[in-house]
Automatic annotation (TrEMBL):
The lineage of its organism: Eukaryota, Fungi, Dikarya, Ascomycota, Pezizomycotina. Keywords: Hydrolase, Signal. Residues 42-170 form the Carboxylesterase type B domain. This is Chlorogenic acid esterase. It comes from the Eukaryota.
């Protein structure tokens, strides 16, 4: 018998800017078994493979973010084929974390034909990740070292050369990524489907260079977590509200020693994924009962969102974002979940320069 099930199209992520392999631990999950969710995990081209920003592509007028096109291809494939695996195409939600929250780009690139019925943006949105390699030297550097100069340049562009750090991220191609998302959102040029959006309290703790025995500068960690992750998410959510679309905001403070063994780590970048996917024991061994409850609760509420992106969460006590409204606070002070005033975050973000574009 075919059973209609809910479908989380999770975009697996490695950071877009440096060269980590996809962490499959985060997507190999038991969530499907527990909740009747088909976890259709979709690796996509990332880094140099997804966002090569090559000189030759630019000269040919074809400098497109192929990694975002991969996400579209995945959504189309799942739409066309998932019924054969018991999936329900009317209950597809597209979600990702960090670089994979570039599914937010998707929501602007396919405003009227999103295929899915909701989005989940964890620790990333259109507001950050501007490609500053306007001279396209990064790809040339790699191509030359691999003996592929002709392929990389196509034409005679000796200017596309440099030596230095390698960095890959999305470019403004006006197909998958646009110039000014504030303007675009206010003009209503995005998919107005409901979304879950949020960030972790201590994002930057896992993103800086190892500080050595002296430990971290927590002031710096806090400032960076706000300016790069938390505030762009708050701002994006508020823009979506002005555009008349529903966004359910979460703020994660979960700090469990099985995932965050060192005192300064706390809710670092990606630390919520083992909870969401129920894989925390694969990191640091058995967790606590509160940890199990946070994990179970997170899965429960996301399942409600997948079943009914408009009414599911409000029915379970998680209201959509609004001025002076509430965010869902996860794992704070030894608890599972509670509501917090969104104004606390808005106030913290008030003095932070807007990098949203
Ligand atoms: C979830 O997706 C990953 C990657 O495709 C797969 O390895 C894993 O077995 C899946 N988990 C379940 C419960 O289906
Ligand atoms: C890569 O691009 C960055 C700017 O985003 C630049 O600072 C760096 O020098 C470039 N590296 C190479 C090897 O071209
Ligand atoms: C390629 O550029 C170099 C340096 O700018 C120039 O000397 C050379 O003539 C160019 N070759 C062609 C085929 O345009
Ligand atoms: C983006 O658009 C907004 C709204 O139209 C505008 O206020 C802002 O100045 C623009 N930003 C840039 C960098 O052009
Ligand atoms: C810690 O970071 C803050 C904010 O970036 C900076 O003002 C301060 O000087 C740093 N402290 C130390 C000891 O480096
Ligand atoms: C995380 O919890 C531990 C104790 O369980 C505490 O010592 C540490 O300060 C907490 N870290 C953060 C960043 O909140
Ligand atoms: C939000 O709260 C502030 C201060 O508490 C108040 O001045 C403002 O009018 C409120 N805004 C809305 C939309 O309720």
């Amino acid at each position: 018998m075919m059973v209609a099930v809910n479908l989380l199209l999770a975009i697996a992520s490695a950071t877009a800017v440096s060269s980590h392999a996809v962490d499959t631990l985060q997507v190999e999950t038991t969530i499907g078994l527990v909740h009747g969710i088909i976890n259709s995990s979709t690796p996509y081209h990332n880094n140099i493979f997804g966002f090569p920003n090559a000189c030759g592509q630019d000269e040919a007028g074809e400098n497109v973010n192929m990694g975002v096109l991969d996400q579209r291809l995945a959504a189309e494939w799942v739409r066309d084929n998932i019924a054969a695996f018991g999936g329900d195409t009317s209950r597809m939600v597209l979600g990702g974390s960090s670089a994979a929250a570039s599914c937010d780009f998707y929501s602007y690139a396919y405003p009227d034909d999103a295929i899915v019925s909701g989005f989940i943006f964890h620790s990333g949105c259109t507001g950050h990740g501007v490609n500053t390699d306007l001279a396209h030297t990064n790809f040339t550097f790699v191509a030359e070292h691999l003996g592929c100069v002709d392929l990389s340049l196509k034409r005679n562009s000796s200017i596309c050369r440099n030596t230095g750090q390698l960095k890959w991220t999305t470019v403004i191609d006006k197909i998958t990524k646009f110039e000014n998302y504030t303007k675009r959102t206010l003009a209503g040029k995005y998919s107005k489907l409901p979304a879950i959006e949020g960030a972790n309290a201590n994002e930057e703790a896992s993103l800086i260079t190892w500080p050595g025995p002296a430990g971290l500068n927590m002031t710096y960690i806090h400032e960076k977590s706000l300016s790069v992750y938390i505030c762009p998410a708050v701002h994006h959510t508020s823009l979506r509200f002005q555009g008349d679309s529903l966004t359910f905001f979460y703020f994660n403070e979960a700090n469990f020693s099985s995932i965050s063994p060192r005192p300064w780590e706390g809710a670092y970048h990606t630390s919520e994924l083992p909870l969401l996917f129920g894989t925390w024991e694969d990191y640091g061994g058995p967790g606590t009962s509160v940890e199990a409850s946070v994990s179970g609760h997170w899965q429960d509420v996301y399942l409600e969102f997948m079943k009914d992106p408009v009414r599911g969460l409000p029915r379970h006590g998680w209201p959509a974002f609004g001025p002076n409204g509430s965010a869902k606070l996860m794992g704070a002070n030894g608890g599972v979940s509670q509501l917090m005033d969104i104004s606390i975050l808005q106030d913290e973000c008030a003095g932070i320069p807007e990098t949203y574009g």
